[in-house]
Design goal:
heterodimer, A: 238 residues, alpha+beta, Ubiquitin-like (UB roll), 2 domains, 5-stranded mixed β-sheet, two-stranded antiparallel sheet, 9 helices, 7 strands, 31% helix, elongated, B: 123 residues, mainly alpha, 3 helical TM bundles of succinate and fumarate reductases, 5 helices, 0% strand
Chain lengths: 238, 123
């Protein structure tokens, strides 16, 4: 099969270029990360991040034939029709919208800055109980679909609103995490959290195109979480 | 967290709400107008003039003009803050964005005043 990979080494290259590789997969439906590992044997200069290789760490988020996802849990057959059979090339690029450090490795600082802004930790200014803050099973269930985010950045880097305003719009990943704490019965910083998001950018730059939902490798729904925050702001402001 | 002095309400929730309310006003107006045009088999100037000169239509037209202006401003403000940024214009971005926003704002103001003149001036 043919593989086309975005290559850029700022120390030696004037500009990025796509490099073509040939690989014999023997018709196997390999994961994209397996393909990258095999290619790295051919060309040790090829750079990409990976760690757990089972969709838990979120290190190998990349753009595969135009769609973001985790290379380790994306089989060739799921990238695009014809890729596994070698009829179409596998095209790998770094996550869009982030500065490229080298090849498929991107600088995630902007992404983490937005994550930090939503204060992704439990805040409660009431006296701490002797053992732990209890939560009913019903309240705990409200966190399902929110806490599972692994911060791979596939969603935020597929969002045009975030491409254009990565420093002002929080992006789907940070907003999902924001709602994870707004929805938590043990957190009582709701007012403070909401008051930081009612400007025209932080939350409201989301136009609901749902790219985030379509690419999330964990099957989460940031658009729904954003809708919930919007409803909370509406209840508070009307 | 982000300060925006040129957005309509300087507040995301306000702009978002106005955008939706104005869209509903425009949609209801369009459906009503379409209904009127379909039911009129022989539409002549007198019928049209009497229809548009009636008090309910004057109010509806005023609401339409204001809704279109607010809707346009919020929409185009989003477009200018998405595309006329330092990513596309470098250091000149703020000047470009401000000039474009002011031109749009003045045109919309003219549109509103002109519209109000047409709706209420010919009485």
């Amino acid at each position: 099969m043919k593989v086309s990979i975005y290559r850029y080494n700022p120390e030696t290259d004037r500009e990025p270029a796509m490099k073509e590789y040939e690989l014999d997969t023997q018709g196997k439906d390999l994961m994209v990360l397996d393909v990258l590992n095999l290619l790295k044997e051919q060309d040790p200069s090829l750079s990409f991040r990976r760690s757990c290789r089972e969709g838990v760490c979120g290190s190998d988020g990349m753009n595969m034939n135009g769609k973001n996802g985790l290379a380790c849990i994306t089989p060739l057959s799921a990238v695009a029709p014809g890729v596994k059979e070698g009829k179409k090339p596998l095209v790998l690029r770094p996550l869009p919208g982030l500065p490229v450090i080298r090849d498929l490795v991107v600088d995630m600082t902007m992404f983490y800055n937005q994550y930090e802004k939503v204060q992704p930790y439990l805040q409660n200014n009431t006296p701490a109980p002797a053992i732990e803050r209890l939560q009913s099973p019903e309240d705990r269930a409200k966190l399902d679909g929110l806490y599972e985010c692994i911060l791979c950045a596939c969603c935020s880097t597929s969002c045009p609103s975030w491409w254009w305003n990565p420093e002002k719009f929080l992006g789907p990943a940070a907003l999902l995490q924001s709602y994870r704490f707004l929805a938590d019965s043990r957190d009582n910083a709701t007012e403070d959290r909401l008051s930081k998001m009612d400007d025209p950018f932080s939350l409201f730059r989301c136009h609901g195109i749902m790219n985030c939902v379509s690419v999330c490798p964990k099957g989460l729904n940031p658009t729904r979480a954003i809708g919930h925050i919007r409803s909370m702001l509406l209840e508070r402001g009307v | 967290m982000v300060t925006s002095v040129t957005s309509l309400g300087r507040n995301g929730l306000y702009d978002w709400l106005i955008q939706r309310v104005s869209a509903v006003v425009i949609a209801v107006y369009m459906i009503g107008m379409l209904g009127f045009l379909i039911t009129q088999s022989n539409l002549d100037f007198d019928t049209w003039s009497a229809f548009m000169g009636s008090a309910p239509m004057r109010i509806a037209n005023t609401l339409l003009v204001l809704s279109v202006a607010a809707h346009t401003w919020i929409g185009l403000w989003s477009v200018t803050t998405d595309y006329l940024t330092s990513l596309t214009f470098g250091k000149a971005a703020t000047k470009v964005r401000l000039v474009v926003q002011m031109v749009i704002a003045l045109l919309l103001l003219v549109y509103v005043l002109w519209g109000l003149l047409m709706i209420w001036g010919g009485a």
